[in-house]
Design goal:
Elements: E1 11-15, H1 20-31, E2 35-40, H2 43-53, E3 68-71, H3 77-91, E4 97-100, H4 115-143, E5 147-152, H5 156-159, H6 165-185, E6 190-197, H7 210-219, H8 228-239, E7 250-253
Parallel strand pairs: 1-2, 1-4, 2-3, 4-5, 5-6, 6-7
């Protein structure tokens, strides 16, 4: 059906594609017809995602229309720029959809948090989004192409969370960065939006003690945690022309938590 191929001409770059939300986003975008460039710090995980999509599994062997996997530490400026170069070399065009899903946690109370844990979370969760957004936007503007950039933030970036000063700050930064990018890039036909997941069943939330998960689940009006696919559905909408007049938005996917 046509509704299942809203992205049939799109090339989508997804960072953090090796697991969780990033993998679900990759699967959903491919299901809508997009060609996916799946990137992760763990190259084997990225290749596994591509295998699930039916692609060959590496950038060296990606025929036209096939998906490809890339390994990069997108918190490093040189690596982020090189990633965009590799994607363009591989597919002969810049990605028209860019989804930044890479993220980590290093939880600790403010009174005891180390500078290293602060710096690492800011680097992966915020700096990487700046670097990827900048490199992707430069590639799109240079080629005269329109695009949709979607950055994964978190509801924690809006309301905070005990033990997550670094994570909350990084995700709040993503919201502000995305809104500003939307203002600057709109005239180039590039839309920028952020998605704010709540508690989603991912490897990240698997680290949370069960008693905490039970308490949080009890606060969710819909009565259960979300699945990565719930976030992927929203990302796909924002990637498609169905959201063609939406930019600078922050869409919450929380089951009503903290509304």
């Amino acid at each position: 059906m046509a509704s299942q191929l809203r992205l049939r001409s799109a090339l989508a770059l997804v960072t953090g594609a090796g697991s969780g939300i990033g993998r679900a986003v990759s699967v959903r975008l491919a299901g809508e017809g997009a060609t996916v460039a799946a990137c992760d710090l763990d190259g084997a995980a990225a290749r596994e995602t591509v295998r699930l999509l039916g692609g060959p599994g590496s950038e060296e062997e990606a025929p036209r229309g096939a998906h490809a996997a890339f390994q990069a530490d997108v918190s490093e400026a040189r690596a982020a720029r090189r990633l965009l170069e590799q994607v363009q070399d591989c597919f002969s065009r810049p990605p028209s959809v860019v989804v930044s899903c890479a993220g980590i946690t290093r939880d600790e109370f403010l009174l005891h948090m180390s500078e290293d844990d602060w710096d690492k979370v800011i680097a992966v969760n915020l700096k990487s989004i700046f670097l990827v957004t900048q490199a992707a936007a430069q590639a799109l503007v240079s080629s005269g192409c329109h695009g949709s950039i979607i950055n994964i933030s978190s509801i924690v970036g809006k309301v905070g969370n005990v033990g997550q000063t670094n994570y909350a700050a990084s995700k709040a930064g993503v919201i502000g960065l995305t809104q500003t990018a939307a203002r600057e890039l709109g005239r180039h036909g590039i839309r920028c939006n952020s998605v704010l997941p709540g508690f989603i069943k991912t490897p990240m939330t698997q680290k949370v003690p069960q008693k905490v998960l039970d308490k949080v689940t009890g606060m969710i009006p819909m009565g259960h945690m979300g699945d990565p696919e719930d976030v992927a559905d929203v990302v796909t909408f924002l990637a498609s022309e169905d959201s063609g007049y939406i930019t600078g938005a922050s869409v919450e996917v929380t089951g009503g938590l903290f509304m």
